[in-house]
Amino acid sequence: MKVLVAGSTGQLAQALAEAASAARIDLRAYGRPNLDLESRAGAEQIAALAPEVIINAAAYTAVDAAESEAARAFAVNRDGAAWLAGIAAARGIPFIHVSTDYVFDGAKSSAYVEHDATGPLGVYGRSKREGEQAVLHVCPHALIVRTAWVYSAYGSNFVKTMLRLAREREALRVVDDQTGNPTSAHDIAAALLAIARTMLSGTASDACGIFHLAARGETTWCGFARAIMRLADEAGHRSVPVVPITTAEYPTPARRPANSRLDCGKLQATFGIALPDWRESLPGVVRRLVADASGKATGAGS
After folding, report:
1. For residue 11, is it within any domain?
2. At 174, which helix (H) or strand (E)?
3. Is 151 in the active site?
4. Full-model pTM
5. Residue 162 covered by a domain
6. Does the structure show a pLDDT above 90 at 270?
């Protein structure tokens, strides 16, 4: 299986490269300037590689900055995604596009299913929702996965931020009235490669459309932070108290959904895939980050 991943420096693209290497899958991850969704450059790279599957892990993900950079957000998340999907459609190969829980407004009292009405609260969510629509318009057999609260050993994410702030502050004030499914990019990567194999084999006739792909279990950002601090302490990293606050006490340019929980039953029924509970995946990532930070601090490996 020859896989092209759009994006190379983001946490999901790096997790995909790591998972593919372990599974001996031929995967090439291309980012700017070789493959740039914003300027829609890189068709030659794709033609030269001749992939069997394309996974779009590239996105404009700066949720707050998107409020003042709407044109860039839509250029990448809608127009660039549709351009890439069109290339896959023209080549007649499977296309997997990664979307987000932020397409919902968070008003529902239970977990969201794929056919629930969307209602993004900000520019980022709107650009991703319009990206879903644009992808399916040009590539009706595309598969879209919505995921949530992604963290990993790579890139910028909530776990890395909490560990960094714990070294700088005496306590962490974290929102406790937004609920979701913290999801490891490493788990997402393994699932996406399994989905790609199924799509390529043609064994699942309904392997297209929108699916939810998130970890089992739910918590608030505060609960997530407390779990990170507990694991950090066990790993020998500085740990500080986590103080719960409300969304109103932490104003941001972009509004976030109060409920980001995703029901992933459709994914399990179609592909037989269910991600682990977030509490099972988090310890390994925290230990890895703490070990990496310790190595850098002591100059290990230099």
Report:
1. yes
2. strand 172-175
3. no
4. 0.94
5. no
6. yes
